Amino acid sequence: MNAWGSGADHLSDSGEEARAAAELPAPAGHPRFPLMDPLRAIAAILVMLVHVAIFSGGFAAWPKWALAHFDIGVAFFFLLSGFLLYRPMLASRVSGLPAQRLRDYTRNRFFRIFPLYWTVLVVSAIVPGMYGAFTGNWWVYFGLLMDFPLFTPEGKCATDPFHCAIPPAWTLAIEVFFYILLPFFAMAMAWATRSLKKHEPKRFFTGWVRIELVVLGLLALVSFWIQGQTDRSGFNQWLIFSPLGRAWWFGLGMALAVFSVRTAQLNREIFPVRFARRHAGSCWLAAIAAYLICTYLILEPSPSLAGPATGMGEYLFQYFAFGLIALLVLAPAVFGQIDRGLPNRILGHPALIRLGLISYGIFLWHFPVLMVLNDLELTSKVPGAQFPVLAVGTFLITVLLSAATYLTVEKPLMRWSRQFSKPAGGHGRRDEA
After folding, report:
1. What tens digit of pLDDT does each residue of 94-148 get?
2. What is the SS3 assignment for 345?
3. Strand partners, 100
4. CA angle, 49 then 67 then 345, to 5°
């Protein structure tokens, strides 16, 4: 176990990992978790594949049932955000690591998300002609406000959601809402634990740890109540598509941050942490088994993360189960090392590290690319191999576009934004992952 108590900041000799660390650095003074970027790539590819399956015959065929819930990638995204963004805030408070200024956090998050999103939104409005960006409701789509009851959808956005703006961006809107609320949650937790000792050398579940986990647990319970609402309009719509409405997923990632920081404080592990570090393969096998059981024995073969398309009970079970499955995959990547265990060696492969760098582009570009190929009727030319042909075509074009926009939009703007960052109260350079 290393000095951080997790092993996750252990860097391999891979040139790709060194490049990734330079281009997407951890906040100054905090450990970097190199396996998170490849997990982002996997999550983006899962989301891409479920959309490809929809446009290549659906999920009627028994083998394609396994693809029906690849939208579980969304749960991966939310857990990753909860962990990666909350851990530096928590470690700064309880371990004395450098804190980030709120204006630096806000600016870095803005340049991480909006320039590329706006680029893809505008290009998609031209080719393949996605509706929304050049209409009277332009502010809704450019502002990532489409989840909320602030406007009346018009044109294709009212009749054909697949041709409206960037359809998968409904989850991105929730992410941005989470970015906005997270610093205030961190401030509230700092106030709630201000009188407690931050470092108790003997007990793992010291006062601040218990308070963090209890609050996250209560918020998760509230999120189940919110998702269980049958009326999904008005104020309920705000709640359902808010971070509070997905607090089970965000909270699991934030709970991982609590365990990671406390493990680093004590420089020793409790059983769940030790198991995740030593038995990454078992965690992944359990996650795969749980997913297949859910897909083939419990859930209907239809993506339904946005709402209860097949019944409220099934929807809530899926919300619960997908959080645990994502946790089983993520925990070994947090506490393990990049070169230990088969799953972590897979994640540490140079190809996945490269894809991790452009994973945000993969998430944004794949749907417009898919629509172009669908408009060209690519699948009609290969009736016996619709899914593989459409999947390969979408993936290759998406990766090329994502790499191009990473080099021309994401990378230079993120680098420019980080140069202004300083630790709170200090003058050293501050990097934002």
Report:
1. 999 999 999 999 999 999 999 999 999 999 999 999 999 999 999 999 999 999 9
2. helix
3. 423
4. 70
Phi and psi for 55 in degrees, rounded to 5? -90, 10
- What confidence score (pLDDT) does residue 425 get? 61
Residue 264 contacts by C-beta under 8 Å, 6 or more apart in sequence?
3, 4, 5, 6, 31, 91, 95
- The pTM assigned to this predicted structure is 0.94
Angle, nearest 10°, between helix axes 350-357 and 359-375?
A: 80
Residue 288's SS3 state is helix
Helix (H) or strand (E) holding 75: helix 73-95
Q: State the amino acid at position 366 in one-letter form.
A: H
Mean pLDDT value across residues 321-344: 91
Phi, psi of 423 (to 5 degrees): -60, 150
From first CA to last CA, the distance across the chain in angstroms is 23
Which of 295, 288, 222, 212 is closest to 256 using CA atoms?
212
Q: What is the token pair recorded at 44? A: 């983006």
For 82-144, the DSSP string reads HHHHHHHHHHHHHH-PPPBPHHHHHHHHHHHHHHHHHHHHHHHHHTT--BSTTSTTHHHHHTT
Quote the CA–CA distance of 125 and 388 in Å, as a whole number: 27
d(CA 206, CA 211): 9
φ, ψ of residue 131 to 5 degrees: the values are -80, 155
Would the pLDDT of 378 be above 60?
A: yes
Q: Which residue intervals of 241-311 are DSSP H helices?
A: 247-266, 271-278, 280-293
Taking the CA of residue 64 as centre, how many other CA atoms within 13 Å lie in the half-sphere pointing to its CB?
20
Q: What is the DSSP letter of 150?
A: S
Give the burial string for 332-354 (b: 16+ CB within 10 Å, else e).
Answer: bbbbbbbebbebbeebbeeebbb
